[in-house]
Design brief:
By secondary structure, this protein is α+β, with helices and mostly antiparallel strands. Helix content is about 10%, strand content about 25%.
């Protein structure tokens, strides 16, 4: 029992930092409602309210983007067909079209224009 408490406290001491403006570091964000505790940044698809909550530094419509910003181009109002050749519009961002074997949700996401069983063919 004592060792469990010790390791729990050790985990908290190593993985939790107190929030200060800009003081959470690159892998953490200052979580609201946690009495000033820095938390690990969120993965793609997790719920967010601010860009700096996400590992990719992009929160889109309440979800963290699943790819880093250097692989997307941000538009204020992209619509289907408004992105450059080789890109598609989703959640107001122009994304690079996906290669063969990459996970997809729709044909327009794939370079081949063929998404079958959630993979580009």
């Amino acid at each position: 029992m004592k060792s469990t408490i010790f390791f729990s406290l050790l985990y908290l001491a190593v993985n939790v930092q107190a929030c200060t403006p800009g003081g959470c570091g690159p892998r953490h964000y200052c979580a609201p409602g946690t009495n000033g505790v820095c938390k690990f940044k969120l993965r793609g698809g997790e719920s967010c309210f601010k860009d700096d909550w996400c590992k990719t530094n992009k929160c889109i419509q309440g979800k963290c983007a699943s790819v880093a910003l250097d692989s997307v181009s941000i538009y204020t109002e992209c619509t289907p067909g408004s992105c450059a050749t080789g890109k598609y519009c989703r959640q107001k961002i122009c994304w690079e079209k996906k290669d063969f074997g990459t996970k997809c949700d729709a044909n327009y996401e794939c370079k081949s224009h063929n998404c079958r069983d959630r993979r580009c063919e």
